[in-house]
Each structure stands twice: as structure tokens, then as C-alpha cells.
Design a protein that fits this description.
four-stranded parallel β-sheet, Glucose Oxidase, domain 1
């Protein structure tokens, strides 16, 4: 444990301790808000970055959780200050929350840098909020602890378990196929999502919070606690106590994160059967921490660690069941031989200390390598594919794909926008079969912009009525972590910047070989050269706004989709105070 710091070493003292006019003004204005001088003087200042919003049901309870954090901070002798930040809540935000992940990362970093903050508790949970808040905190590198929003309560409809996202897509297909009625659909709408909290499946939200839990950035097991469980505000309060201790210890993200801690996160990622979206976020986070992490590192871990958590979309249970079965700590204990147990965590203990004795109470929910949900021979959490369609890589979750499509050749039908695709696919006269490869391009970070979750491309209605529920689908966009199917995603470079996907034409044969790790178009090289010479980029959609900035500075999917001016570890000085 580090030596306890002196009060004079804290950042906040530059604002509050001086005897000049500026110090007077800082103390004066704090008292203007009703604070007694002794309530903030001589105490570590704890920033509570809160992404609560009435447009983000996943975060609807975070206003109350901020109060619980404050309770813990006061108890530990700190001074808590709540600072609202952009709430990148899925579903409501258009065109995609991914467009705003870097916005929140920048906001978090600058909120912490520009204010007299010594340590931070980060309140988030919905998909992009976890990587965004941590990207900002990693770059700022002051003591920080992540307080995950937690999954919503289990859902059930007419006696069947229903998971947010997963069953939305499932029942939408059944509605389009004519197997359920419009009345059924409306009834389902009001029953499937029963409480505040993130998706109760292993979508991107629980994938990312579990990964950062395994990396040591949350209190041990915090990611598994359901949002409305009474243990959740108790955990939030404990975050408040612990962050004050971390400030005195000067325990920063840079003391916790290295390549081994990221690999620990990958073990959790693969055992959970987590979202393909994590592949983008982890590269971005690692680059902020100065850690070399690639898609190939993820593929290598996916080849060692099978899907072992029996939760939708890969399994049969929901996140509340996972929590009652022992949660993330029990899962990590079963896979401890894949972990570096010596890595430090925010509670001051090692990962090994934190998972020692973590029992599993339901071996059907949390399985081991001897009885996985999906054996490695059947599929993996993450496959990385390369070829003349994706020279820099594409990803897919083969564990969620149909085995018969893992080696497939079929003619492409290519769409340049989701609007045209959605209108065209349901044309009963469309020449399309189960063997056709549906392709959507211009859905990447620059092309969309923001790389939306458009990649779980719809099955044509006429094929749904024939019983077809999966096809090979390719996109330079992303897919919701709650979804499933033979979907190849994150094709890089994307079509909008001249990637090979831009050169594919309807009727071209596409060859997928997951075992070989390849994705190719069977087009003569000379023809590809001819098409490239004729290709021209579309004019930029945005001439101003944040989206214009995004298109100018975002990296490709395999590089993490971070901004070029935010990525890396260059030191940014604290602000001058005059």
C-alpha cells in the first residue's frame, strides 16, 4: 500500500488553500452554496460524475445512487460534489450512442481536470457510458472508481423468461412472420422491461461492466448486483468510502491497469459470451492506458476460454439469475487459472484476494470449462476475420451463429443505406434465398457516422414465413450485444473511406470460412483494381456540428474508434490558476 499523502499534495488545495484573492473566491463561492467552511476545507474533494437522465431508463436510479455515494464520502471524511455528464443511453439516442462515446470521454476528462477534484466516482452502466467514463478517467489519471448501474430485474411474459433486446428482436421476427398478433406485441411492450437498470441479458452493458470489474476498476463483484437490489445502494455508499481512501493512497488507474489487467478483462469477456462491441471499446481504453491490445489478442483469448455463462443471448437465464448464482466473482474463480491473480484492484487487494472462496450456487447458470454453454469446437465469443473484404479485420460471435453458415459461399445483395435495405428486403418479388449474403455498407464510424448498431440485418419477411431465422450478414457497422445470428461486423477499413466493402456489387460471390478466419469476395483482382479506380467517396453529410468533428478525427473500428487527438498517453497539465 502506498504511503498516505499529506493534505497539501491534493489537487484541490490549489483551489482552496491559498491566501490570495483566487483562493478567497473559491472558498467564498463554495459557501455561497450553503456549505460551512469546515465541511469542505481540509477534505479530499470527490467528484461524482453522474450520467443520470430521464431519457436513459438504464440510469433512471442514478440520482439516488449519487446520494448513496455522497453518504459514503461524508462518512469517510471527504467532500462530495456531484457533476452531471452526458447520458449516452441506448434506444433513445439517435443516430447512435457510439457517436457520443468520445464526447462523454472528453467531458469526463475535462470535468475532472478543470475542477478542484482529487478523486472520482463514475456512475454509468449503459453500453457506451462504461468505456467513455473510463477512457476519460484513465487519461486524467486521478484516483477513480467505477460504480456500475446494474442490470434490470428479470423479465417474464406468459410464463417465459424474456430478456431486453434479445427477445425484442426474437418477437419482432415472429410478428413479421405472422406467428404472434399485434395485441401480443403491445402486451409484451409493457411487460418485458420491469425496472430501472441495464439490459438483463449479457448485452454490451453487462459485458463492459463485468470486464472492468475483472480489470479491478470496480468494487469486487459490483457489476453483478441488480439495479434495484438493496445491495446496490449499499455498494454505491461503499464506493464513496473507498474513493476517499484511494485519494489518500494516491491509487490511480495507472497503478491498476497494465496488459495483464486487460487480459484478465478478456477472460471475463469470453467466459460471459459477451458483446462484439467490447472489441472496439477495449482497444480504445487500452490505448488511453498505453497498453498494446489488439483484435488478435482477443481472438487468442477466445480460443482458450469458452462461453460458460448460461444467460441470454447465448443461454437460458438472465442477469439476476447470474447474480444469485454467485455473479462475476464465482465465474472468475472457476477460470482463475487463466487470470493474473496478482493484479491490484481499487479496493486495495489483489484480484486473487477478491475471488478467493467465491462460491457458485448454481452450476447450470455459471458453468466451467468441463461443461460450457458453447464448447470451443462449436463456437467462440469472438472471431476475427480477414481477407480481401476486411484487410484490417472484421469480427463475429460464432457462438451465436448457425453452424451451417460458418463455412459458406453465396451471392451478395448490397445496400448502401438501411432505409433502402428495409424497404427492399420485404419485396415479395425480391430474388433472395437463405443462401444470399446480405450486405449493408456506409454504416461505419465515418460513413454513418458513429457506427450504429445496424449490423443485425433483418431477414426478409417471405423467408421468415418459410421458417428462416438466420442468414450470413455483413456490415461495417455494429450489432447490439443482446442480438444473435451469423453477422460479420466492424469490417475495416469501412466502405466510406474506400475500404473493399465499397467495391462489392450485388451478385458477387462472398466466401466466409470462420475456421480459416477469412472473409473474401470472389472477384478477380483486375476487376477489383478497376472498381477502385472508379470509386469516389460520398460528399460529407455534415458541414458543421459535433458529427462533422467526429468524421474528421475518428479512427477505424480495429483501432478503437477514438479521436486522434484524445488517444494516447501524452500528459496534459493541470490548469493554471491566477
Amino acid at each position: 500500500m502506498k504511503k498516505r499523502r499529506d493534505l497539501s499534495e491534493l489537487r484541490s488545495q490549489r483551489w482552496f488553500a491559498s491566501d490570495d484573492m483566487r483562493g478567497f473566491a473559491h472558498r467564498q463561492r463554495t459557501q455561497q452554496m450553503g456549505m460551512r467552511r469546515d465541511e469542505f476545507m481540509g477534505r479530499p474533494v470527490i467528484g461524482i460524475i453522474n450520467t443520470w437522465s430521464e431519457m436513459s431508463p438504464c440510469h433512471a436510479h442514478l440520482r439516488d445512487r449519487a446520494e448513496a455515494v455522497k453518504r459514503g464520502v461524508w462518512q469517510a471524511g471527504g467532500y462530495p460534489v456531484e457533476m452531471p455528464a452526458l447520458s449516452v443511453g441506448e434506444v433513445m439516442v439517435k443516430p447512435t450512442t457510439m457517436l457520443y462515446r468520445n464526447f462523454l470521454a472528453m467531458e469526463c476528462e475535462e470535468l475532472l481536470r478543470s475542477h478542484p477534484v482529487d478523486g472520482a466516482v463514475l456512475l454509468g452502466g449503459c453500453d457506451k457510458s462504461t468505456p467513455a467514463l473510463l477512457m476519460g478517467a484513465i487519461s486524467m489519471d486521478i484516483p477513480a472508481i467505477y460504480c456500475p448501474a446494474g442490470p434490470m430485474s428479470n423479465g417474464q411474459w406468459r410464463g417465459m423468461k424474456t430478456g431486453a433486446g434479445t427477445h425484442t428482436k426474437k418477437y419482432w421476427d415472429e410478428l413479421r412472420a405472422g406467428n404472434i398478433t399485434q395485441s401480443d406485441w403491445i402486451d409484451l411492450e409493457s411487460r418485458m422491461t420491469r425496472s430501472a437498470g441495464t439490459c438483463n441479458t449479457i448485452g454490451t452493458a453487462s459485458t463492459m461492466t463485468s470486464i472492468v470489474d475483472a480489470m479491478g476498476l470496480t468494487l469486487p463483484g459490483a457489476s453483478s448486483i441488480p439495479a434495484t437490489d438493496s445491495g446496490h445502494p449499499r455498494m454505491a455508499s461503499a464506493c464513496g468510502v473507498r474513493i476517499v481512501e484511494m485519494v489518500w493512497e494516491d491509487l490511480k488507474p495507472s497503478d491498476i491497469l497494465d496488459r495483464a489487467s486487460f487480459l484478465n478483462g478478456l477472460v471475463a469477456y469470453m467466459a460471459l459470451g459477451g458483446s462484439t462491441n467490447a472489441a472496439v471499446h477495449l482497444v480504445a481504453m487500452a490505448r488511453r492506458a498505453g497498453v498494446d491490445l489488439s483484435l488478435d489478442d482477443m481472438a487468442a483469448m477466445a480460443g482458450k476460454v469458452p462461453v460458460a455463462v448460461n444467460v441470454f443471448p447465448s443461454g437460458e437465464y438472465l442477469m439476476e439469475d447470474f447474480y444469485f448464482a454467485g455473479g462475476l466473482l464465482a465465474l472468475l474463480n472457476k477460470f482463475s487459472h487463466h487470470l493474473d491473480l496478482t493484479r491490484p484492484t481499487v479496493n486495495g487487494q489483489t484480484l486473487g484476494d477478491n475471488i478467493a472462496g467465491a462460491d457458485c450456487w448454481n452450476d447450470d447458470v455459471i458453468r466451467g470449462e468441463d461443461n460450457p454453454v458453447v464448447p470451443l469446437s462449436r463456437g467462440k465469443t469472438l472471431e476475427v476475420l480477414r481477407g480481401n473484404l476486411a484487410p484490417n479485420g472484421a469480427v463475429m460471435k460464432s457462438s451465436a451463429a448457425s453452424p451451417k453458415f460458418l463455412k459458406h459461399v453465396g451471392p451478395a445483395i448490397v445496400f448502401d443505406s438501411p432505409g433502402v435495405m428495409n424497404t427492399t428486403l420485404d419485396d415479395p418479388d425480391l430474388d433472395i434465398t437463405e443462401d444470399t449474403v446480405i450486405v449493408l455498407r456506409n454504416a461505419g464510424p465515418v460513413g454513418a457516422p458513429g457506427m450504429p448498431e445496424w449490423g443485425n440485418l433483418p431477414i426478409p419477411k417471405k423467408l421468415l414465413k418459410q421458417g428462416v431465422r438466420d442468414m450470413v450478414r455483413i456490415s461495417d457497422g455494429r450489432m447490439s450485444g443482446t442480438h444473435y445470428g451469423t453477422c460479420i461486423l466492424h469490417v475495416s477499413p469501412e466502405a466510406a473511406v474506400g475500404g473493399p466493402l465499397a467495391l462489392l456489387e450485388t451478385g458477387d460471390l462472398v466466401e466466409l470460412d470462420v475456421i480459416a478466419g477469412t472473409i473474401n469476395m470472389r472477384v478477380d483482382e483486375a476487376e477489383i483494381v478497376r472498381r477502385r479506380a472508379a470509386w469516389r467517396p460520398a460528399p460529407p453529410l455534415y458541414q458543421r456540428s459535433f458529427a462533422a468533428l467526429y468524421q474528421q478525427h475518428v479512427s477505424q473500428a480495429d483501432q478503437g474508434c477514438d479521436f486522434d487527438f484524445l488517444s494516447g498517453t501524452a500528459v496534459v497539465p493541470d490548469p493554471a490558476i491566477y
